[in-house]
Each structure stands twice: as structure tokens, then as C-alpha cells.
Amino acid sequence: MKKKYPAVVEFIGDPKSYILACEDSSLRYCRDCEILPTCIKKHNMCEFTPNKHYNAYFLEYWQGRRNSIHVTCNTNEIVDFIPFEDFEIIEDVDEVLSNKEAIVRCITHEYDSSLFDIKYNKKYKAIGISRNPDKQYTYLVMDESMDCYFYPNHFFEIVEDRDDILDRENGIFVYDKSLFID
Ligand SMILES: [Zn+2]
Questions:
Q1: Residues 87 and 137 both lie in one domain
Q2: Same-domain check for residues 73 and 36
Q3: Do 37 and 60 belong to one domain?
Q4: Which of 22, 30, 53, 63 has the fewest CB atoms within 10 Å of its CB?
Q5: 19-61, pLDDT tens digit by residue?
Q6: Residues with CB under 5 A from ligand 1 (ion)
Q7: Beta-sheet strand order (sheet of 102-106)
């Protein structure tokens, strides 16, 4: 498997939206915290700093629009579902921030009784491949919830994959930092 360079992006958003919540909160951001009005702790650690550069890995769907980014933040973790509009691409030599996707058809009745997930015979967009700890291949698919989740590859047949993104050798492997050159 050929290693790729992550893209380099510059944060151009409002850092105030990304103030991290204190340890007393189970939420990631201060802005979402229900204890904020009475909290006496300092809230000044931001996830991103204006004009600073970060490594970015791929673009993901958020509620049906492929507008969120997987990106490293000030704590050096990779965080997901961050709005892409808050960044500018500085460099992307391996085109990891592309919108490439494959079309797959669901061939399982596994989820027939569930409200979301995937429906038998319906086509879905797949944006990447992964190998789970049991060494099984999974596809990252935008399902009925309009967000992306991993499903076993044998739940699908590939309808169209012009860019070979679901290829087991050279596909777009997601959520695996070891496949990137740091
Ligand atoms: Zn607090």
C-alpha cells in the first residue's frame, strides 16, 4: 500500500467556536456545554489557532453534504466532522481532499427492520475503505441517516468505482493514520 501525504490546511475560521469544554463537561466544546452558565473554570483552550497549519486526511459527509474535514487539531488528535469552510488548502499533493466516491448497492436484508442504516437493493455512496481489527474490509458509506458509517464490504456489490477508491491495495483507506507520511 502506497503511503500518502496528508493535505496541509490553514485555519481561517473563528477560534471562539472551537473553545474546548472543561473536564467537568462530557461535551467536546464549551459552546455546547449545559454547565457553561454556572461554570467557574477557565475556558480558553481552542482546538484551532488562526493562520496555523494542520494536517488533513479526508472529506466526509455531514447530513448529506460532503463538507466536513478530518484534521489534526492543537491537541494533536485527529478530529472529525469539522466544517471544511473554516480551512483553506495550502497543499494537497496526493489529492486526499478530493470528492471521489464509489456507488455501491446494498445486497443484505440485515437492516430491513431498522429505520436508518441501509436498505436492500438501494444504491449508496461510498467514500472509503477500511480494515477492521478482525481483518475484514469495511466500506464507509453514507446511509439512510445521511451521515457515513462503516459496513462490512460483503453487504454490497460495487456498482461503479471509476477511481478504484474501494480497491484493497490502492483504495482510499480512511481512519488509519499509519497510511500517511507525517
Ligand atoms: Zn466548564
A1: no
A2: yes
A3: yes
A4: 63
A5: 999 888 889 999 888 888 888 887 788 999 999 999 999 999 9
A6: 22, 39, 41
A7: 148-152, 137-142, 123-131, 102-106, 156-160
